[in-house]
Design brief:
Elements: H1 11-22, H2 29-58
Length: 79
């Protein structure tokens, strides 16, 4: 289901939407706005994940346990 909303934008904001459309990164203004919302949601998820990772490090727990020891693997000399 979709809901239509009305918003007021500054001239610069509208120009940014129109540039996304003109440069082919969005099919229309609505899609450009949806892309912006998707980026906002992604940023919110990343902030939550970052907080969780920082908390693991603070507690001294492994952040990526499956990568533990990867630097200790044998490797040939580079020379």
């Amino acid at each position: 289901m979709t809901t239509q909303i009305a918003i007021r934008l500054e001239d610069q904001e509208l120009a940014a939407l129109d540039a996304e459309v003109a440069e082919g990164r969005a099919a229309n203004r609505s899609e450009a706005v949806r892309h912006g919302i998707a980026r906002l949601q992604r940023d919110q998820r990343y902030r939550v994940e970052e907080t969780e990772l920082v908390e693991l490090v603070r507690r001294g727990e492994a952040v990526y346990p499956d990568l533990d020891g990867i630097l200790d693997l044998p490797h040939p000399p580079l020379d």
